[in-house]
Design a protein that fits this description.
By secondary structure, the protein is mostly helical. The chain has a single domain, classed as MetI-like (MetI-like fold). Helices cover 70% and strands 3% of the residues. A two-stranded antiparallel ribbon has the order 1-2.
Length: 298
């Protein structure tokens, strides 16, 4: 008599997988879903001393999208991202291509050095750059400009956004370099060899073989960079100690933070946060659609 086949483990214990996932699901529910739901409820209500807490629907969102400070901060981070993200990703791509071409025993050391700024906490990095930028005690304080002989002020006027962009680029270029370098490791070496046989130069191989092969990784880095730019907070918050021009509404996230913890307007701060999240979602989704259509045409 033939032995009866044993049932698969999953069939005998249908709840086993759910039990393994349950701890993670509870963590997500308690520390992510519930706070988000509570914050969303706060954004739909208002609180005052006279009337107390009352449901106001989308009034806070209408106020947020018509608030001049909110809109100014939103425009500022968009302009900031349009300049900073291409520069950062361009430097990261060049670094990844250089690392991929390095075949010496020091390649690992180069990768660690490139990644090192990302390992520095954002607050520490901003404080360090604030010291370097300082008008009074920083190493650049006494340097004259090319015109007029006035001391260099990197924390005011048009140079302020450039200085902040330098901090972000310094912090995140190494991370994006490693992401692109990891993608380059998955490019088949046969493509390199075929290009060499056809007489392609190293520059042509990099631009016409390697870069098209990792366009998915580049697009992913661009999306994450755009999301991070819209959430721009730590650097301007720390640098406000050094740069008086950084106001309470310098960026949308900074504006929401100050509304909550400086003016105790938690409902409006929650609405600003969700409005910013909506803008980020729409922008990222539009980028993905445009990229997919361009990829289909190519």
């Amino acid at each position: 008599m033939a032995p009866t086949p044993r049932k698969p483990y999953s069939a005998r214990h249908p709840l086993a997988g759910a039990l393994f996932v349950l701890p993670f699901g509870l963590v997500v529910l308690v520390f992510l879903v519930v706070p988000l739901a509570y914050a969303f409820w706060l954004s739909l209500s208002s609180r005052s001393l006279a009337l107390g807490s009352r449901f106001t629907g989308l009034d806070n969102y209408v106020t947020a999208f018509t608030d001049p400070q909110m809109l100014d901060g939103l425009v500022r981070v968009v302009v900031f991202g349009l300049v900073q993200i291409p520069v950062m990703l361009g430097v990261a791509l060049a670094g990844a291509l250089a690392l991929d071409a390095i075949g010496t025993r020091f390649a690992l050391a180069y990768r660690l050095i490139a990644f090192m700024p990302y390992a520095v906490p954002a607050v520490i990095g901003a404080l360090m750059w604030g010291f370097l930028y300082s008008r009074t005690f920083g190493p650049l304080a006494g340097l004259p400009t090319l015109v007029g002989g006035e001391p260099v002020d990197l924390l005011s006027g048009s140079l302020l956004l450039v200085s902040l962009g330098n901090i972000v680029t310094w912090s995140w270029t190494g991370y994006n370099t490693i992401v692109m370098y990891s993608a380059l490791q998955g490019v088949p070496r046969e493509l390199h060899e075929a290009a060499l046989i056809d007489g392609a130069t190293p520059v042509q191989i990099a631009l016409r073989v390697k870069v098209p092969a990792i366009r998915q990784a580049i697009a992913l880095a661009a999306i994450f960079s755009a999301i991070g730019t819209m959430q721009f907070f730590t650097e301007p918050y720390v640098m406000a100690r050094f740069a008086p021009e950084i106001s309470a509404g310098y960026t949308p996230n900074l504006y929401a933070y100050n509304q909550a913890f400086q003016f105790s307007s938690f409902n409006y701060a929650a609405a600003i946060s969700f409005a910013l999240g909506f803008v980020v979602f729409v922008a990222a989704y539009a980028f993905v659609i445009v990229r997919n259509r361009l990829g289909e045409r190519a």
